[in-house]
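Hi team, as promised in this morning's meeting, here are the two structures we talked about. I've kept the exact order from the run log so nobody has to guess. The first one is mostly here for context; it's the second one we should focus on when we meet again. Sequence first, then the predicted structure tokens.
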Amino acid sequence: MSNTEHNEQVEQRRAKLAQLRDAGEPYPNDFRREHRATEIISRCGDLDEAELKEQEFKVCVAGRLMTRRIMGKASFAHIRDETGDLQIYLQRDTLPEGTYQTTFKKLDLGDIVGINGTMFRTRTGELTVAATQLRLLVKSLRPLPEKFHGLTDIETRYRQRYLDLMVNTRSREVFRKRAATITALRRFLDERGYLEIESPIMQSIPGGANARPFITHHHALDMDLYLRVAQELSIKRCLVGGFERVYELNRNFRNEGLSTQHNPEFTMLEYNETYLDYHDYMDLTEEMLRQVVGEVMGVLQVPYQDALIDFAPPFERVTMVEAVCRENPPLTPADCLDSGQLTAYLRTIGLDSEPDKTCGELLLDLFEETVEVKLTQPTFITGYPAEVSPLARRNRANPQITDRFELFAAGRELANGFSELNDVDDQASRFLEQAAAKAKGDEEAMSYDADYITALEYGLPPNAGGGLGVDRFVMILTDSPSIRDVLLFPHMRPETSG
């Protein structure tokens, strides 16, 4: 549809609205719907035409007009409510006098209507409402997209999500599954005695993850504040205070680039429990995801793009060194502990590294470039270097690595967890290292959090923590290739004119 045609339709619809205003209230609010589409289908689905006629099942429905087929003195239409579509049959002689000509025929697709009637089946067997009353409840001033049976323009779907939801039933199902996933995650932890908390989104010091924060300014306090990048440090403060099982499911904000897997604000579930370690939390995380997948999907094998992600078998557990060597056969475990060997190998595969990177940082670079995308089935990676894990407890047998895991599936990170660092002096030292890196220009390095160190000085019980990227998890459950598909209102670059 051209802009001229679109504008002409808008003008015509506005002219109809003006007539409605002259006639009385154009946006009535006294219609009370009594039935939804799926309720009617569930109740009448097994009844044949004779049974429907005998029961004379009367309904009162409302929805958006999606199709209309006028055939002289009788017409068919479809309306759509939140639960689905319903066919309507309208006859001039069975509606109140004048309704068919002055109301129904003047309707436009997209208008919201209320209908009373009786259920019957057409010759083709479709459940249909034989309308006895029709009211226009809301005049739609803009025409539906041309392809209203399935809006395909990605930009329009993301920028005008209301249109996407209006015409794409699959999009509605995506967000129903997202809501069901969040409910199931909460239920899993609630049933295990976890306490849900809410930590501040605006913080004086950003912490809990290596990420570039958003900065805002509080005028009354005359101070800069940072949007939260993680909930972790607040949760662990609660453990210091005496709570033993704590979680938060909420938004985090990171000033990073946009991609199919990254949005500036995203939903994270972070959860900690005292007197457990990262082995226990791999077990807990695996159990939680398997249970949630089963509740939301009804099966444990989930199709995602060209793969089938299977949450039923035990998740594989492999160290980072083992994974790197498996995907890079020339390298040995000894090579993975040698900065020179790693630097040389990275060059052979076309990756140059910064000269001041540590061996652990080089190993992580190699893992992210050559291994991560190949981890299709749920896999725990352990043995993360200490220098890239500033909040994780060092491994007792090898202090160069930490008791940390990350869970990968469909070639991306889903969860991160570890035995939490509660040695106050070690934590203070790592904060100082992070602060030094920040001073050298690393915008993702953490700041020194003096209050958190004070909290640790009172004693943080041994505990394990985990964090689940809810958006990426939902992407898998809904077979969505982009994170924007599972966010109702994703961030978009401004539209350019001309």
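And here is the second protein, the one for discussion:
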Amino acid sequence: MLPQALINAIDALSMLPGVGSRTAERYAYYLFKSNPKISESISEALTNLHSGVKSCPITFALMDADEDISPLYSDPKRDKATVLVVEEPLDIYAIENTHAFHGTYHVLGGAISPIDGVTPEQLHIGELIKRANNDNVKEIIIATNPSVEGESTALYLEKVLHEQNPKLKLTRLARGLPLGVDLSYADQITLSAALEHRTQL
């Protein structure tokens, strides 16, 4: 029988997505064998997680709890006339790491999924429409994930945004086959996008 403290650690770690019981056991045992300062550091970081992070009231990006507005919006170098729309806050950092985008962001908070009970009203779509008007937005880039839910959300956004402002420029991230991937390994959505957005040589 394992010590109760170790069992508690395993149970806690197994709550994480993608972490099964065996992986949780390895993590817990590793932490037990390692320098206690590692566990203390992790514990402190988790304790401060909820009190130290909040959502921006405008972009819904994650920011420090002592900030009023996300720097991704308040920075004067950011082009407020261009808004890139993503499903989740962490999607922003994938774009930021490219250093190729200098506009602002808008986080929907998910994707439309009737099966999961997620409707448009539960997403930050109304706030996006208000931003488009308040900030005199010229272009909205839709960067939802290439999934069935992401595609449905993108189509819905195109419809409602055009209804609100027919002159608003709506674009989507180009999609297709990534370098180094064989056709036989590509999924149907990726292949369809590659065909639809093929370029002339």
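Starting points for discussion:
The longest strand covers residues 79-86.
The chain has a mean pLDDT of 91.
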